[in-house]
């Protein structure tokens, strides 16, 4: 469902060029649960942005569900994202001065769902991450870990085919992290949700089936995880 | 050096009131290294904001270096912060469209240091967190963990008496986290830097001497850590 071939992403040119991705090959099949780890600055978020059709590689091929992404217009890529991908950004990217509920509803607005249906689905998504009591709070009135969970709820509310989660538990205590990871694993095992998750915590990576280790823009290792 | 007595912080009133802090007592002596842990939403960042003179409690007393903080004007509190406290925010709070170097120089501008001296100190601070090669990049061109490290460098560049760090390794791989924690421990042991650090990772909390566990706005436990 995701096929990256010799993907590179270079910022700048000449001496100061940064090879954020330096020729990566990656194949993800439907229903897989993959963890990506690696040092700070090794290209994990850049890889996620390419996979999520948010960034265009400098070279190489990317086929998403069989479609050559390079051949799509910006609008077509936006449609692809909105219908198939739920994205948890490393920095959450919530709308300020907008309630948690409205933030979570956003993907459903894009899909043209009616107001009553949207609110119901958004409240359920917030309940799944333990935040129904904070539905009316905007991000400025939420703790760091609560903002993170709103971002997770938003990524899942539209029942996407693929979830891309960049450090989804980076600001969560261990107990809440485990609850979130158990939920994600359930969505993967029972719902067939394909998950690619960046994490720096080995205990969270174990919920995935396969571990990709990145170093300096390349994939250094690609192997099964020990599991839970 | 930090004395909180029966500190409460309530948001809102009546039924929807949120007791973010619900009567906490805490004494921190000069040179201590304290870790704060607890569930998401338990009041850790709120406690840090009160300690850092960024937020005023609803009730209780706060004495910072013997001074009643409630009796200070806003300008006096800002002076206190700029001279004595280095703060790493949970969301970093870097200036956008401003280079890493200029972000780190900011505390020194407040202290009236000359340009050449500021740049030298800022470059050294960036080198200590492994980012001298990224000095010219603004936050939009830095990875999540690089932004986090710029925030850490900025907190330390002015050689503060007290460092307040809210999840300083939340987006860092284990190896980089350990390097940062070793550096902080050195500053504490050799430099006498007082450190209060929120973390959700037990392995990082072990670098501290004492662990405070918060639940629902209260301090549930206050005990020594097992150490490294
Ligand atoms: N401005 C506000 N208005 C109302 N409630 C607020 C406001 N700011 C924070 N809160 C609430 O206060 C509680 C404590 O927040 P705080 O940010 O201190 O938690 P925390 O322990 O740092 O959590 P995390 O580990 O997720 O960062 C949370 O439940 C949050 O929803
Ligand atoms: N717009 C840009 N211009 C120049 N360099 C950039 C830009 N964006 C990112 N980089 C660089 O590309 C490299 C990879 O960044 P990326 O965000 O993918 O790392 P990462 O593995 O996600 O790191 P972290 O674990 O810290 O989040 C970094 O060294 C970063 O400085
Ligand atoms: Mg990243
Ligand atoms: Mg917090």
Structure overview:
The structure is a homodimer of 228-residue chains. In chain A, 34% of the residues lie in helices and 27% in strands. With 228 residues, chain A is an alpha/beta fold. In chain A, strand 9 (210-215) and strand 10 (218-224) form a beta hairpin. The longest helix of chain A has 16 residues, at 174-189. At the A-B interface, helix 5 and helix 6 of A face helix 5 and helix 6 of B. The structure holds adenosine-5'-triphosphate (2 copies) and magnesium ion (2 copies). One adenosine-5'-triphosphate sits between chains A (11-12, 18, 20, 38, 40-46, 90) and B (134, 137, 141-146, 171).
Structure characteristics:
228 residues, alpha/beta, 10 strands, 34% helix, binds magnesium ion
The percent of residues in helical segments of chain A reads 25-40%
Percent of residues of chain A in beta strands? 25-35%
Largest sheet of chain A, if any?
A: 6 strands, mixed
Number of strands of chain A: 10
Q: Categorize the overall geometry of chain A.
A: globular
Total of DSSP H or I helical runs spanning 4+ residues of chain A: 7
Which small compounds were modeled alongside the protein?
Answer: adenosine-5'-triphosphate, magnesium ion
Q: Which blocks of ≥5 consecutive residues of chain A have pLDDT under 50? A: none
* H-E string of chain A: EEEHEEHEHHHEHEHEE
Query: pLDDT average of chain A, as an integer?
Result: 96
Pair of chains with the largest interface and how many residues each contributes: A-B, 30 and 30 residues
Rg of chain A over CA atoms, rounded to whole Å, is 17 Å
Category from helices, strands and their pairing of chain A: alpha/beta
Oligomer: homodimer
Distance between the termini of chain A: 25 Å
- Which strand order spans the largest sheet of chain A, edge to edge or round the barrel? 6-7-8-3-9-10
């Amino acid at each position: 469902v995701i096929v990256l071939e010799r993907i590179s992403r270079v910022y700048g040119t000449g001496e100061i060029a940064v090879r954020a991705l330096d020729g990566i090959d990656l194949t993800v099949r439907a229903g897989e649960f993959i963890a990506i780890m690696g040092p700070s600055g090794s290209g994990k978020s850049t890889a996620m942005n390419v996979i999520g059709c948010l960034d265009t590689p400098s070279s190489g091929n990317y086929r998403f569900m069989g479609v050559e992404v390079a051949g799509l217009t910006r609008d077509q890529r936006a449609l692809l994202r909105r219908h198939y991908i739920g994205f948890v950004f490393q920095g959450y990217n919530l709308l300020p001065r907008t309630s948690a509920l409205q933030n979570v509803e956003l993907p459903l607005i894009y899909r043209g769902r009616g107001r009553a249906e949207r609110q119901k689905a958004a409240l359920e998504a917030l309940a799944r991450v333990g935040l129904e009591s904070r539905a009316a709070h905007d991000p400025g009135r939420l703790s760091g870990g609560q903002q993170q969970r709103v971002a997770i709820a938003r990524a899942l509310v539209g029942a996407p085919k693929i979830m891309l989660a960049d450090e989804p538990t980076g600001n969560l205590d261990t107990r809440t992290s485990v609850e979130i990871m158990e939920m994600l694993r359930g969505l993967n095992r029972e719902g067939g949700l394909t998950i690619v998750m960046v994490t720096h915590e080995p205990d969270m990576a174990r919920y995935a089936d396969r571990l990709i280790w990145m170093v300096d823009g390349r994939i250094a290792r690609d192997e099964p995880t020990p599991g839970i």
